[in-house]
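Researcher: Please translate sequence to structure tokens.
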Amino acid sequence: SVLVPTLYTALSMGELAKNSSVYGPQTNAYVLKHLEVVEIVINNPAIEDHTFHFHGHNVQVIETGPFGSSSTINGQPVPHILSGPWPMWRDTVQVRAFEFIRVRFRADNPGVWFLHCHLAVHMYNGLAVVFVEAPDVLQQRQSVPEEMVEMCKRQGIHTQGNGAGHQGYDLSGLPPAVYPPS
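Model: Translation complete:
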């Protein structure tokens, strides 16, 4: 894991906070620009359903359908389902086995937000990402209460710098990222 919590990196790295590499490969971080419209496609090529939870946002469910181009039932193609003019809003979506889902949200909530599968074993195996949303705006609008900073320091947790606690792109000292087998 990283040595500096992602929120602290976002708040302390200035302009470099806009580059996902400063957070370290362990975070699987994606930096979003303020007010950009973000579309995410979650594919599920597995035999089991996955429930994904979005922190910090409700998302519009835009489209669902079969995963891959050759999905059929009784020899007939399975249609994609489009949301229509008023997509439903959710903070949790289920991606059924062998299907995909396309969701959309506007990056209007600066912060560090987690998207993860609700099955803990899947989350630990990498079905999770971190959205670092508008770190430049976050730096202008938010600070961490001093009590929280002190609590981290008492536990030996770094509160400034990149994922390794350094300035710039030097990530030396981080343990290697663990990637699930492919």
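Researcher: Any highlights?
Model: The longest helix spans residues 146-154.
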